[in-house]
Write a structure and sequence with these properties.
Malonyl-Coenzyme A Acyl Carrier Protein, domain 2; 14 helices; 2 domains; Alpha-Beta Plaits; single chain; four-stranded parallel β-sheet
Amino acid sequence: MKTAWLYAGQGSQKPGMGRDFYDTFPETREIFESPAAGLDLRALCFEADAGTLARTRHTQPCMAAFAAAVTLLLKNAGQRPDFAAGLSLGEYSALHASGVFGYETLLGLLAFRGLAMERSAMGIPSRMTAVLGLGDTDISRAVEDASPLGVVAVTNRNCPGQTVIGGEERAVLAAEQICLSLGAKRCLPLDTSGPFHTPLMESASVQLREKLGETELSPQGVPVVFNATGELAPDSEARELLCLGVRSPVLFEKTIGTLGALGAEAVIEIGPGRALSGFVRRSAPDMRVISIESAEDFKKAADSGFAPQARPS
């Protein structure tokens, strides 16, 4: 059975994340204690409140530390994916799992990315909202009609029935009202600290291009499906796709479709929260899923031989 490892993105973080892995598996401690991010990741992950952890300069390296710890445990248990992918910042953990760079580079890159993204739209009132139950055509119309009020764009196509929009607050609020008038079931504001994956992130994209130009990337040992295209890409395109991904939509529904077309029958979701498994259920109902967000989850998965279970019919 071909399996993909999927890594969670921003919004899945929660206070105390990873503490049970640190306490249960001593081999993960060097990751949480690493100075590579220039932050006290152990304190942020285990002790910070939700507001502090939600700042993207903190969220991104903390999520990376969690992902790297679980990746280490999976590989130590003899597991290897056939494919890897991630949601936004999770894409970097997918590349780490693929062998493109080590965990210290992962932590450093996401600390840099988080700070650049936080600063890119500093001082601009912004908003991100999940639009539920409305088709792509109507959402695109709403975004276009609201655009005279400011920057507003589709930021995530997560799964059928869930698309995220973001940008300048006034324009996004107007787009929400248009979406509701067109039949959206609900517009759910997201707890994010910036208008990610919109043109307002252009400055972060430019900074990231320079940083990645200085970073050594090894060939992909496992094929990675990239956010910006929802498709596989050669190593020669990886840097540009990572830069593009900061300011363009995350095509996660397409990513799941690509994994299915490649023969993936199961996924292991890695990260606090279970948002990705929900997206998989809506996008590919026959795909099997294991979610690992706790040490207990990992132990149960190991006991089962890491064999994702079929969903009840």
